[in-house]
Amino acid sequence: MKKPRILVPTDFSDLSLIAFPNALAIARLLDGKITPFHAYMQMNDLDGFYFMGETSPESDLRTLEKNLHKRLAGLSEKYFDEGIYSEPVVKIGNAARCISETASDYDLIVMSSHGRTGFTRLILGSVCNKVLRTSPAPVLVIEEESRLMPLHRILLTTDFSENSLYAFEPAAAFARAANAKIDLVHIVSFEQFDTFARAQHDSQDRKLELDHLARKYLGDLEEQLHTEVIYTEKSVSEEIIRLTKAHPYNLVVMATIGRTGLDYMMLGSTAASILHHVKTPVLSIKPDTAG
């Protein structure tokens, strides 16, 4: 993730704007370029980033789009360093769909998980979930209380599937640039085993596999890397949530999809579940469109 092209969607609410300073920090760290983005519907669409201004739906669309473009440009001047941002992008249509379609030209999306307040905040929160499922670019989700910088410690998860390995490179890029530590963890439920002895024997094999992956994909970060196999009575998402509350992580990095079949569906919901319960920024990578 060198010199990433970063897309930053906003609905102009204060909550959505928390993504802006975080995008700037990432652009500085990785020598990236930022593009602010807004999608709107001609008529109010509660499932989109519609424009809440003085212009009525009957107004000339060219004037409306010009005003939106100007507003985004003003935000760029306010939040970003000169030369670090590109021309704003304004599109007509459903927010989640427009963001995902535009993301094919970018390396990273940085966005808030919520927009406006009240009922609309809940609806606009679904935009983030839809983008997570459909974006061809990695998505970094920032909560209101998130503290990404200074970036000292990263939680990276794997279920040993090929899909989960797509999260390794972005985590490594952040760790190298920020000299941050990575905790690489593999989480296993006790429910898979009949006896404690069997689980204990299994633990040794899994630790060897985890260390093998660490050497193969993160070998140059050996001094910054800690590996651990965690056995739990909780679900994978519950254990990740517990870890983020127990340790001062600045970033969680994970694939949105794990294994195939039923596990594919179940692990695919893990990232979305975590987003609703943690304050730590979460970077999710959708493997089937990555690279």
Unreliable stretches (pLDDT < 50, length at least 5) are: 44-48, 50-55, 115-124, 259-268
Tally of DSSP β-strands? 10
Q: How many helical stretches?
A: 9
> Secondary-structure element order, as H and E?
EHEHEHEHEEHEHEHEHHE
**Biggest beta-sheet profile:** 10 strands, mixed
| Cα distance spanning the termini | 10 Å
Structural class: alpha/beta
CATH class designation of the largest domain: Alpha Beta
CATH superfamily of the largest domain: HUPs
Arrangement of strands in the largest sheet? 3-2-1-4-5-10-9-6-7-8
Specify the helix fraction band.
25-40%
CATH architecture of the largest domain: 3-Layer(aba) Sandwich
Describe the structure.
This protein is an alpha/beta fold. It folds into 2 domains: 5-142, Rossmann fold; 153-289, Rossmann fold, CATH 3.40.50.620. It has 9 helices and 10 strands. The protein has a 10-stranded mixed β-sheet, with helices on both faces. The radius of gyration is 20 Å and the shape is elongated. The protein starts with a strand and ends in a 6-residue tail after the last strand.
Nutshell version of this structure?
It contains nine helices and ten strands. By secondary structure, the protein is α/β, with parallel strands linked by helices. It starts with a strand and ends in a 6-residue tail after the last strand.
